[in-house]
What we know:
The protein is an alpha/beta fold. It has helices at residues 2-16, 27-33, 46-50, 52-65, 79-84, 89-114, 134-138, 154-170, 184-196, 221-229, 247-257, 287-300, 313-324, and strands spanning 21-22, 69-71, 126-132, 175-181, 203-207, 234-240, 261-265, 271-273, 278-280, 304-305.
Amino acid sequence: xxxxxxxxxxxxxxxxxxxxxxxxxxxxxxxxxxxxxxxxxxxxxxxxxxxxxxxxxxxxxxxxxxxxxxxxxxxxxxxxxxxxxxxxxxxxxxxxxxxxxxxxxxxxxxxxxxxxxxxxxxxxxxxxxxxxxxxxxxxxxxxxxxxxxxxxxxxxxxxxxxxxxxxxxxxxxxxxxxxxxxxxxxxxxxxxxxxxxxxxxxxxxxxxxxxxxxxxxxxxxxxxxxxxxxxxxxxxxxxxxxxxxxxxxxxxxxxxxxxxxxxxxxxxxxxxxxxxxxxxxxxxxxxxxxxxxxxxxxxxxxxxxxxxxxxxxxxxxxxxxxxxxxxxx
Length: 329
């Protein structure tokens, strides 16, 4: 019953948004613009410890820009990661809960304000708890290779994700967002974990891609989607943090492989060197290009569109403008 209720909530949001809901954009990018230093294995999750008010500020900036879905700052927030920083398990769990609470509080504050204006064009946003891949925790770039080594099996991946999933769900998000999944094994682990834990809020599972054709592991998306397509708990699938010029063909591919909602939130097109921990110079999409291509992506079948690394509130504003007010674009 819970799944059915939340599924309707997600579908209603897409409908209210004109057939395509807008996901927010790059979180770490915006934190850094405000002066945060996050060159750290915890990445943006470091601000959960050092500057939670800044996290809420960034959420509010994305809401103002027109985001219909806020993704929490928990992508690289893991219990092993917090333990490695000398925090206790209890402190780590409190930080995971904080990531959801900050997003919910920002959403509620923003909605309370805009509801007083009868002419507003905003939707009441949903909060998606971010669950980064195992490779994101390793912070060695393996979320873009899918190579976890021979010692990582299905049970190890489920054990890695299990407690974080439990804590995040208990914190009360509307959705779960499994992000930058690089291989079939981890996708299967996520699906089995949702079933084993009887999770009754809807999830999406998004993959990365480095060649525009397959998952980073080299496995086909047909292979990766086998388990996902059998799950009623996963409501959307798609691509995040891949170059935007891959997105058109990948939407077409996913349309052939699944009947689930399709989510796409690419990065700016710049390339991340996971070992050197820096962005490499490369051709990238500016906000005007995102505005142009968002319409194409929606027309091809995407129902959830946003941005990932190196995109900003102005990017999301451009996407929201063209999707919700096409006559003004």
